[in-house]
Amino acid sequence: MRLQDRVAAVTGGSRGIGRGIVEAFLREGASVCFNGRDRKAGAAAIEELSSPGRVEFVQGDARQSADIQRLVEVTASKFGRIDIMVNNAGGITEPAPVKTLSEEAWANDLQWNLTSVFYGIKHSIQYMAPQKFGRIINISSVEGKTGVPGMAGYVAAKHGVHGLTKSVAAEVGRDGITVNAICPGLILTDAVTQGGPATAKAMGLSYEEMVENVFKARTMTGELNTIEQVAELSVLLASDVGAGFTGALISLDGGISPY
Q: How far apart are CA 128 and CA 152, in angstroms?
């Protein structure tokens, strides 16, 4: 029960990595409010989580400041405070080489993967700073330290998340707030499985070649990461033990970026 009596908000918590983090936080004793664009998916997740009184869903789009603000406000209103903010929502809009990448896809990649994190940080620290305690966890990517073809908007946004993480950590550290980014390698969530073929095509590869010859081949272990690994690291950073981590960009990628 490492998060006993803590309160967390998670963006994009209905499925994938976000869902795994919500489950881990509940298991460790926290109360959790999460959002997502799909109301039916959120309602189904609430039913499956089976934690009445400790979990709440708020429909919303992480790309919209007002929706993130509502998530934070509902969290604080229902549970009395907000201790942990996990900025998880994100994805790849339109995998394509830069020469054919649309300006709309570029703008959405930045809004979805970087500006949404800014919104989560900005709104949550309004509550964290007065209580002199907070844990902000940004779910980034190994591509925020490296890069691959066909993902320029996503990669640029994740690099931006790292600069934002370090800058905000320096701003709020004396307020008892830590700010860190987790940088996973490829994780085969349902979203990745669905969008993977398009990403592979942008690289000039088949989906199988992309997984084996790009993502697995780049690791030291030959293995991909899991949702459970990201969730457990999130619990660590959110716990009392996590007090010593801030401004950190923590690689969880099988050794692709060992720094």
A: 34
User: What domain count does the chain have?
Assistant: 1
Is position 61 within any domain? yes
Distances (CA, A) of 244 to 170, 174, 179: 13, 13, 11
Largest CA-CA distance found in the chain, in angstroms, rounded: 51
Residue-range definition of the domain harbouring residue 13: 7-187+226-251
Output 237-241 pairs: Cβ under 8 A, ≥24 positions apart. 237/135, 237/137, 237/178, 237/180, 237/182, 238/2, 238/3, 238/6, 238/8, 238/25, 238/30, 238/83, 238/84, 238/135, 238/137, 239/2, 239/3, 239/28, 240/2, 241/2
**Which member of 127, 154, 207, 259 is catalytic?**
154
Predicted TM-score (pTM) above 0.90: yes
Question: Residue 188: what pLDDT?
Answer: 80
Residue 119 catalytic?
A: no
Residue 164 contacts residue 117 (beta carbons within 8 Å): yes
Beta carbons of 186 and 178 less than 8 angstroms apart? no
Burial category of 11 from C-beta neighbours within 10 Å (exposed 0-12, middle 13-18, buried 19 and up): buried
Residues 61-77: pLDDT tens digits?
999 999 999 999 999 99
Which is nearest to 7 in space by CA: 86, 88, 66? 86
The first and second tokens of residue 159, run together, are 């690099």
